[in-house]
Amino acid sequence: METDLQMAGQRSRKTCSCDYAMSLRMKLGTFFRRQDTAINCVGGENSWVIDILQPGDVLVVDLFGKIRYGTFAGDNLSTSIYAKSHNGLIVNGAVRDVSGIQQINGFQCYVRGVDPSALENTMLMGINTPIRIGDVTVMPGDVALGDPEGVTFIPAQLAEKVADDTEMVHQVDEWGHAMLRQGRYTPGQIDRKWSPEMVNEFNQWLKQKGSKLRMPLP
Question: Residue 217: inside a domain, yes or no?
Answer without folding.
Answer: no
